[in-house]
Amino acid sequence: MNRQRLSLWWFIGTLLFALLSMLVPLPAPLEPFKPYWPALVLLYWALESEDRVGLGLAFLLGLGADLFDGALLGEQALRLTALVFIALRFRSRLRFFPMWQQTLAVLALLLNDRILLLIVRVLSGAPVPPASWWISPFVGAALWPFLFLLLDDLRMRMRLQ
């Protein structure tokens, strides 16, 4: 298998893994701590491989996440498209931030994602979520350095083989 094909399968595989990770059930007390995996993985690829990630891919991945999760159709598509738009807009700055600043930027993006989700849910008539609902972006930001380094290391190893 040539490098380009392997790289494409690695890219698709990480996105599918993120979608499937979103579906993993957790006990009720741990559910607020579940990070939004598709956003984290898509954000990694938006920062590292601008030519592969665009708004269309973010929208399609969001529609897939909506179908997998059973959410309001277009809800996650809107959220992921907004996240990728901001990430691509500030890509040149975000890539060269030290890891702690990049983590804070990821936290800001994930909080923006939660605000968008809150707006969509309130407009659709759902009740306002509890305060524990805001824990997830902080968990995602705490996991960001480890996820980034893991995916980057695996991507570099694939390139070397």
TrEMBL record:
- Tell me the first and last residues of the signal peptide: none
- Membrane-related topology note: Multi-pass membrane protein
Q: Where in the cell is it found?
A: Cell inner membrane; Cell membrane
State where it is primarily located.
membrane
Q: Where are the transmembrane segments?
A: 7-28, 53-73, 94-111, 131-151
Keywords, in A-Z order:
Cell inner membrane, Cell membrane, Cell shape, Membrane, Transmembrane, Transmembrane helix
Spell out the family assignment given in the record's similarity comment.
Answer: Belongs to the MreD family.
Q: What does this protein do?
A: Involved in formation of the rod shape of the cell. May also contribute to regulation of formation of penicillin-binding proteins.
Q: What is the name listed in the Swiss-Prot or TrEMBL entry for this protein? A: Rod shape-determining protein MreD
